[in-house]
Amino acid sequence: MTQQGPLEPITEPPDQSERKFLQGPDSRGFEFVGVLRIAWEFIRGFRTFHFLGPCVTVFGSARVKEGEPEYELAREVGRRLAEAGFTVMTGGGPGLMEAANRGAQEVGGISIGCNIRLPHEEQPNPYLDRFVLFNYFFIRKVMLVKYSYGFVVLPGGFGTLDEAFETMTLIQTGKIRDFPVVLMSTGFWDDLLNFLRTRLVATGKIDEADLQRFQVTDSPEEAVAHLNQAATGRFGLTYGPRRRPRRRRWLLE
Questions:
Q1: H-helix or E-strand containing 83?
Q2: Angle made by CA atoms 234, 244, 228, in degrees to the nearest 5
Q3: What is the Cα gyration radius of the chain?
Q4: Can you tell me the distance from the alpha carbon of 92 to that of 117, in angstroms, rounded to the nearest whole number?
Q5: Which of 1, 104, 204, 227 is the right S-S partner for 82, CB 3.0 to 4.6 Å?
Q6: DSSP per position, 129-183
Q7: In DSSP terms, which residues pair with 210 in a beta bridge?
Q8: Could you tell me how many helices (H) and strands (E) the chain has, helices first?
Q9: What distance in Å separates the CA atoms of residue 197 and residue 213, rounded to the nearest whole number?
Q10: pLDDT (tens digit, 0 to 9) for every residue of the chain, 253 residues total?
Q11: What are phi and psi of 151, to 5 degrees?
Q12: Residue 230, burial from CB neighbour count under 10 angstroms (0-12, 13-18, 19+)
């Protein structure tokens, strides 16, 4: 997969269909069309990402600038993931997502984005081999989880926390397998982990074993080694020659 020239910024006004769809009952016709729009977004995502190699998804803030320590950390994570043979998938926006995609491209790895239309923040970053632009957050989150053998969570805000906790909920409830989740930048996560331990574990809201699902580190090398061991050891991932499915035009591939 190769990027065909620089990615153009999103200039059209934000789509209001998700807000309208979620604001309560509407006409049967509107809701039927809404279901079709949702189905089409899923199909676009499935057809675009069907031929990816094994992925690791990297979550992180859109608000971190190039040159900041967290940006360079994410860039190194992306680089090492690509060197280990993983496709690097992010939300496709700026900040730490951009840094991870950039690191992957710098060493010849495959860099993928699940972008979303937002009025102020996210544009597709220029380090993507391929991306899909979604209107619906929940579809985007399905794509970020569906193709990955592991997850790296870098510092971030509401969106990053939402993605991290939804992934952990899916693992905890058995909706997906116990893929590894790595929290990068120990100082950023210390207070949150302490809250989980002293409030949630202490009052029986989660089990101590749930906390053990996180690997917390400052080392990209350690993080990628953990992800690689889990992918090859627990899930049987191999990097030898594989028979890949053939693209079919009638399936929009």
A1: helix 69-83
A2: 25
A3: 18
A4: 11
A5: 104
A6: SEEEEES-HHHHHHHHHHTEEEEEE-S--HHHHHHHHHHHHHHHTTSS----EEE
A7: none
A8: 9, 7
A9: 13
A10: 334 344 444 444 455 666 777 788 888 898 899 899 999 999 999 999 988 889 999 999 999 999 999 999 999 999 999 999 999 999 999 999 999 999 999 999 999 999 998 776 568 999 999 999 999 999 999 999 999 999 999 999 999 999 999 999 999 999 999 999 999 999 999 999 999 999 999 999 999 999 999 999 999 999 999 999 988 877 777 654 444 556 666 666 5
A11: -140, 135
A12: buried
Task: Give the C-alpha distances (Å, rounded to integers) separating 84 from 121, 152, 206, 224.
Answer: 31, 14, 33, 8
CA–CA separation, 230 and 237 (whole Å): 9
Report all structural domains of the chain as residue ranges with CATH numbers, in order of start. 52-235 (3.40.50.450)
Query: 184, exposed or middle or buried, with CB in 10 Å at 0-12, 13-18, 19+?
Result: buried
Q: Answer yes or no: are the C-beta atoms of 149 and 54 closer than 8 Å.
A: yes
Tell me what pLDDT residue 250 has: 63
The one-letter amino acid code at 42 reads F
The amino acid that residue 124 corresponds to is P
**Contact in structure between 44 and 247 (CB atoms under 8 Å):** no
Neighbours of 166 (CB within 10 A): 15
DSSP code at position 212:
T
What burial class does residue 47 get, using C-beta atoms within 10 Å of its C-beta: 0-12 exposed, 13-18 middle, 19+ buried? middle
Identify residue 106 by its one-letter amino acid code. Answer: E
Place of tokens 């499915």: 245
Q: Do the strands 130-134 and 214-217 form a parallel or antiparallel pair, or are they unpaired?
A: unpaired
Rounded to 5°, angle at Cα 116 from 114 and 118: 155
